[in-house]
Amino acid sequence: MKSIERRGKVLILAWLLVGCLAGPAFSLETIRVNTSIKPPFSTLAQDGFFDLLVKELFARIDIQVELIRLPAERALQMADDGYSDGEIPRIGGLSEQYPNLIAVSEPVIDYNFVAFVRKPAHERMSWQRLAGEDVGIIIGWKIYEERVPATAKITRVASPAQLLDLLSAGRIKFALYERYAGYHLLKEYHHNDMVECLPPLAVRPMFLYLHKKHAALIKPLAAALRRMKEDGSWQRIAVQTLGSPTTK
User: Fold this and answer.
1) Helix runs in 65-211, H state only
2) What does pTM read for this prediction?
3) Reduced to 3 states, what is the DSSP secondary structure of residue 110?
4) Could you read off the pLDDT of 44-101 as tens digits, one per residue?
5) Whole-angstrom Cα distance, residue 40 to residue 10?
6) Torsion, Cα of 69, 127, 186, 142 (10° steps)
7) Mutual angle of helices 233-242 and 49-59, in 10-degree steps
8) H-helix or E-strand spanning residue 34
9) Which residues share a beta bridge with 34?
């Protein structure tokens, strides 16, 4: 009888050991992904577009994930330094500047990078139109830091609310932000006197980046994200949180 009990304990221990070594499905590790993005893409209630997308995406490869809200520049630097595991969303090509970060090749969404102005918006927008003008950007938004003409008088702020406050007060002429998040903020703060200039300054695919220590997850995540788009899960989350899909 004791021999049977001993064999039973050995089998249980062996099963637990195999479970611990079997891979992501049995991993107790939680991947921490930074984001600096505000509603409707990420919310304190964690029911924004990226909140829901990231949870479902990582669940498909049996990984637990936690989204951490940080200022844009700090979020990126902490991910590159390895203090956190990743960053979302960022434009493509950041690995050249941040070599420790690897992009998941499938885009998470397309961003419309736009300029908001006080009504009326008569002007046709372009990067060159910003030359010599008072322009506001959020610290850490790389596309604006790199593309706004050097002759522009740039005011850098820490938050989108500060950006629109500057525009409302007439301290800047152009507030550079993302279309969906911008209109959400205009509605929240009742800025009925503001609108975007057309066309967008840029439309860019946005990506999830992971620290290179998680390189083994890059291809499974890309495949899982493609499946979410194919089976309609991506579109469901987009409609639920943004109103309509903005990428194929």
Assistant:
1) 72-81, 142-147, 160-168, 179-188
2) 0.80
3) strand
4) 999 999 999 999 999 999 999 999 999 999 999 999 999 999 999 999 999 999 999 9
5) 52
6) 0
7) 160
8) strand 30-35
9) 68, 87
